[in-house]
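Fig. S4 source data, part A: sequence.
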Amino acid sequence: MSNTTLVETQEELNRLVKTLKKEDVIALDTEFHGEKRYWPELFLIQFAGRNGPVAVDPLGIEDLSPIGELLESKVPVKVIHSARNDIDILMHHLGIVFSSVFDTQLAAAFLGNEPQISLYNLIRNECGKAPHKGHTLSDWSVRPLSKEQIEYALNDVRYLLSIYDNQMTRLKSTGRLNWYTEQAESLTFPSTYEIPLQKIFKRVRSTGKITKSRLPILWALVQWRERIAEELNKPRKYIVKDHILGAITAMAPENINNLSRLRGITSGFVNNYGKEMLAVIREARINPPGNIPDIPKYHSKPDISARRDILRIFLKQESNRLGISPALLLSSDMVDSLAKHPPSSVEDFSAIPGLSGWRKEALGDDLISLLKGKLALSLKPGRSPGLRFVKVEQ
């Protein structure tokens, strides 16, 4: 692999990448800071091939494009635990599109583990090891890195290939490799990592009493805050927190004095952003944006509420039967959609976003039967009572 555990020069990096390209599968991880930034700063990249782990210091190497070429290639497979953050930061810093990713956290969820299992627990479960946790909160920006920091970072990739081998064997033996592959496909889609402004809009909307007439203002302010945060490379909350943005929307102030009276607004915010924010509010009043996200209403009608409750019980039962977490089987949005618009056929079921493919295979027939009234909930008698679903004769 390498004669050193830390690569710090261009020559060492080029040599490392040349070696890694010969592997069929490699492990990957990163160390970064994102708490005080819009775009997280990358401070370390860890790799592991079959011959062991090595770390790359991106701060001392001018050209990281060899890493980009490696990550864009179909071979080797890149094994990452909880891959989204690592993919997101490397896509941004290297300007690449990933190929051939295996997420050990997602695979673990298909094999009966909790959906957000930590790497520490997965290593302990799969390898019988307990890596040291001492540098979880390390400042990775400080140089030189200590030997203890490097060793801690290398442990994040040291066991991943063994875990990958174990998980691949079990996914194949349980017939769930296709299920996993389908669910993991979106990990390499750039669209997966686009900023979810619609979700942010919905979240801010829930922080206060914002009437329908104020929604154009809220959408304009959400987009304005996003632009400022990106330009300054600061987290959204450093510009203005969600609940304050919601309160500003509800008030819709027309002048600086009104804005200044709002609880939680600092004089610094007013001085820095007051005039610009008021201009955004005025423009949204005059020319409301036309792409305001829809906010689905929570239906409390008896039939919809009853279906929602039954679906949750069914989902819990199926989760236990399959050994797959309820959240992975059906998201809360999917449950809500099924409760509002129950499919009457396999074709209708497949037309619902996210319910084709492996979910149809895992749940389809019984779920459709349930929603068509062909399955009923029964209290099982006997020494081990419990709820169960039974077929109903029409």
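Fig. S4 source data, part B ends here. Strands lie at 6-7, 25-33, 41-49, 52-56, 77-80, 101-103, 375-380, 386-391.
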